[in-house]
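>> Question from a student workshop board

For tomorrow's exercise we were told to take the sequence and the ligand below, predict the bound structure, and bring the output to class. My setup keeps failing. Could a helper post the expected result so I can at least see what it should look like? The ligand is calcium ion.
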Amino acid sequence: MRRFRSSPGRGGGARHGRVTEGVILVARRLRRAPSTVLRTVPLPVPGRILARALAVVSALLLTAAGQAPSADWAMVGRTLDEQHFSPLTQINDKNIGRLGLAWYADIQTERGMEGSPLEIGGVLYNVQPWNIVTAYDATNGKVLWRYDPQVPTRFGRLACCDIVSRGLAAYDGKIYVATLDGRLIALDARSGRPVWSVLTVDNSKNYTITGAPRVYAGKVLIGNGGAEMGVRGYVTAYDAETGKQDWRFYTVPGDPAKMPEGAASDSVMAKAAKTWTGQWWKAGGGGTVWDSLAYDPKLRLVYIGVGNGSPWAQHWRSPGGGDNLFLASIVALNVDTGHYVWHYQTTPGEEWDYTATQQMIFADLKIDGRMRQVIMQAPKNGFFYVLDRRTGQLLSAKTTVPINWASGIDMKTGRPIENPAVRYGKVPAMVSPGAGGAHNFNPMAYSPLTHLVYLPVSETYMGYAAADSFDPAHPGLGTSFSGYDAERKKISEYADAHSRGWLSARDPVTQTEIWRTPDEQKGSGGVLVTAGNLVFQGNIATTFAAYRADTGQKVWQMPVQQVPIAAPITYMVDGVQYIAVNAGWGGGLAHVERSNYTKLFIGKPRLLVFKLGGTATLPPMPKESVEVPELAPPPKVAASADVVAKGEQLYGQNCALCHGVEARGGVKDLRHMSPQTHADFLAIVLGGRRAANGMASFADVLSKDQAEAIHQYLVARANEDWDNPK
Ligand code: CA
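>> Workshop helper replied:
Here is what the output should look like for this input. Compare the format with yours to find the bug.
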């Protein structure tokens, strides 16, 4: 079902564009410097902060031993167990009513803010789209330094789900950032100046990096993304001091004629290759580790969360079927050598974009009378898994939302009991969850006090169909999003009627939901839990809220003009506890949600920092962002049906990944282009006019005639839905 509501619903897209025009200009100015220059903007550093910055060095050394001070937030999930839990209690369920804004910083972007900042020794380090890193005085937001790695804008085209950055790592006086174009850069934590930089990918292939690096045992580990565009996934470990490569583990087998390849994965790739058929290596195979890693220093095991297959359709990837190891798996590696130790595959032979890259949490749980050291994950496929992290033994697995792809997990074999109807051919099959997943990147949290996991979940449905043909030289999803209109309409209608989201508090021992707070619609953010009996989460209602960790009762909320999709953090400086969160709607969650043409009144993306008694206030929303503009109707189609059909095909090949199937939603809903955007269409698509905003030029792949055909297809789609408001 296509939704193209009359003016109240329609306003969002146009409004969004207008509000952010100024931001685009600023971003463009930032882009002007030569792309090869590593540029830092040093700023005057007041003496008090300088003293703090020196303390940062020793604080970072402490984190090297996994002993981050409880006042700090020095790693993505605060500690190595990735619990997103803080023992701080100054802000608690008794005094939460006094929580107010301490300070905020505008973020110059109109793209998603998925990363959580780090805070160490009174300095807050943040990362934003295009991997720009800023160090702030954590008490008042004064900028200490800013570093722009000058990512070439053409890489915006390769990021399936926005040009986001999911965080930073810190170790021994350095801050580590991984860039969209595949570099890993070590910065001096005091000055923001680069210490070393290493290219971790082959730039002739479609790799991107959106995940946060992690530092384990003196090594910086980083994965990559691109499984929607024909790459082969891997994780690389570099010496944290020098940037010298230590080991690399590939997640899927390569060309058998080129094995062994001198990688840490060599010893297990022959075993993995037995689970593939055909010439899978030609299209990369996928299995990118685009987000989560975890590390147990006692076991010296690194856990990597492996993503989906490339292409999606198994028919085109591994035509004879097979499990396709290590797609959609948690793989445990020895931290010193990178060698394989064990794996658990969540979705054998996956073909629904069921990544197992979601965050992995450690805890000690008493299961069947025995204390177990567990690793927990809620991947996209809708199950919640509890494994023994020493051995990989599956301890339990239950669904968190209604799903249809499997009816359960066979505990004897650890394999899903799959519904055969979800293996799709050319006729679209309705599968739940859809590619957005029951749980995406937005981190869950675990409290060792309540013994509950706090998990943002979504119930979703999607139609999947295999493409008629697939050419590994032009890799993509191997799926089709056109034809079979009646079947697709039925699936869309069901999906629109049944999709919903909520924050779920889950007992991982009994695998039951203890409480839930429903979202207005799906798309709410990552989670923080504290010893103050509080759970914090940004939500789709453009507010930031706190709930009692034990009961789920909402005890506080504040309108923040944005959707904080990132996980909040908390820290204490000079005896004052702060809560910080990045608020910037975008990324994978928005990508899926916008296909329903969500009406959202959002303001500037910001870093928001709260404390008890905070009295800062946000400026009023810009006038144009709260008024519903009268949209001009789309122009008339000015081409033949043949040209429009050609445009549809080209759109599917080049644009749909970011702008949505049938031009519904995506990063920007192109049914809602303004008269100015229509006029500038070729300048944008071929001339790169909006490259700074992530819309790179396609002049190298599209001719003028082809770009015109896409434009006419979009005009046709706009007219189609304009005449069909429901
Ligand atoms: Ca994917």
